[in-house]
Design a protein that fits this description.
single chain; 343 residues; binds nicotinamide-adenine-dinucleotide; binds (2S)-2-hydroxybutanedioic acid; tricarboxylic acid cycle
């Protein structure tokens, strides 16, 4: 299975495998918000994973049809659907990883923080259930504003006595995926080789791509740095505007979430070389209790917050890091206060 990637396997000498029909993996994955714009294509990608034996789909509505539909794919993951609050506990039983794309998306003119009013409560309620019914699971938070929903999740877990910072992640993989795609196109590099760390948070200028640390090493003019950084920071808005009221990124997000899930499952399996950027509790930047940076994934979740990519920044990056601190700190504090005020 090490040779298989999500849906796009590495080519083999004689034949290409398009979809893994059987797998030896035994991981259970629950998706909360599975009937949504992200949830549906993400569920399909997870159904295609050879690392997954059970896939639980939870949403407040429309799960039954999606479950019937997906269950006809002749891949090994067993699909089960769970609809409405009464079935939430059942959806979480035995989960190794819980992925949370539940919540409302942006419309043109909105910031991610404008979603706080609705999504904070959704994330709080779902994470409370995870604490009760899947206390050892890795939690992948996709719901926006990620800069605040992850601190909300942490506070909820603390209140429940179930917080393990190694197991809580804000999914920022889409920022890395975008950075890789845009840099490869701009510099004419092979897509598979490009790796750009993206640190900070997941909103506006808190998204900080470290182009000086891009692999393979590439020379960027000041104009290119400015242009690429701005495009990566605004890529979510680019999609929101193109969809013109019909939501935000769903397909690329599902792809990114599947990549991050695969990395996490490989870590749980004991693979030794699994690194991704994610928004996690960290001391990489002392003033910011949550910060996206490169982490090593292992058998218990985060094995190490690496953070070495923060050393030797370009002047542009160092300035951008200073500038993002107050905005990210305010979003973290807002999430923490939201949970503490309700006690
Ligand atoms: P969507 O509206 O298409 O789907 C959301 C789903 O959540 C719906 O099916 C809805 O029924 C469900 N839901 C609502 N309340 C729920 C609850 N209490 N329990 C369970 N499910 C519930 O939205 P989408 O396009 O899939 O986006 C979902 C979220 O992901 C948004 O907040 C969006 O901003 C965010 N997002 C994050 C990233 C990222 O990079 N982290 C990228 C894209 C989108
Ligand atoms: C994204 O980056 O695409 C998501 O955070 C969705 C959004 O609102 O932009």
């Amino acid at each position: 299975s090490a040779n298989l990637k999500w849906g796009v396997p590495r080519p083999r000498a004689a034949k290409r495998v398009i979809v893994a029909q059987t797998g030896t993996g035994s991981h259970k994955v629950a998706i909360l918000g599975a009937a949504g714009g992200i949830g549906q294509p993400l569920s399909l990608l997870v159904k295609m994973s050879p690392l997954v034996s059970a896939l639980h789909l939870y949403d407040i509505a429309n799960v039954k049809g999606i479950t019937a539909d997906l269950s006809h794919c002749n891949t090994s993951a067993q699909v089960a659907g769970f609809t409405g609050k009464d079935e939430l506990a059942g959806s979480l039983a035995g989960a190794d990883v819980v992925v949370i794309p539940a919540g409302v998306p942006r419309k043109p003119g909105m910031t991610r923080d404008d979603l706080f009013g609705i999504n904070a409560g959704i994330v709080k309620e779902l994470v409370e259930a995870v604490a009760d019914h899947a206390p050892g699971a890795l939690i992948h938070v996709i719901s926006n504003p990620v800069n605040s929903t992850v601190p909300i999740a942490a506070e909820v877990l603390k209140q429940k006595g179930a917080y393990d910072p190694r197991k809580l992640f804000g999914v920022t993989t889409l920022d890395v995926v975008r950075a890789n795609a845009f840099v490869a196109a701009r510099k004419g590099l092979p897509l598979a080789d490009v790796d750009v760390p993206v640190v900070g948070g997941h909103a506006r200028s808190t998204i900080l791509p470290l182009l000086s640390k891009a692999r393979p090493k590439a020379a960027f003019t000041d104009e290119e740095v400015e242009e690429l950084t701005t495009r990566i920071q605004n890529a979510g808005t680019e999609v929101v505007e193109a969809k013109a009221g019909a939501g935000s990124a769903t397909l690329s997000m599902a792809y990114a979430a599947a990549r991050f899930l695969e990395a996490s499952l490989r870590g749980l399996d004991g693979d030794d070389d699994v690194y991704e950027c994610a928004y996690v509790q960290s001391q990489v930047v002392p003033e910011l209790p949550f910060f996206a940076s490169r982490v090593k994934l292992g058998r218990e979740g985060i094995e190490e917050v690496v953070g070495s990519e923060l050393r030797g920044l370009s002047e542009y990056e160092a300035r951008a890091l200073e500038a993002l601190k107050p905005q990210l700190k305010a979003s973290i504090d807002k999430g923490v206060a939201y949970v503490q005020q309700q006690q």
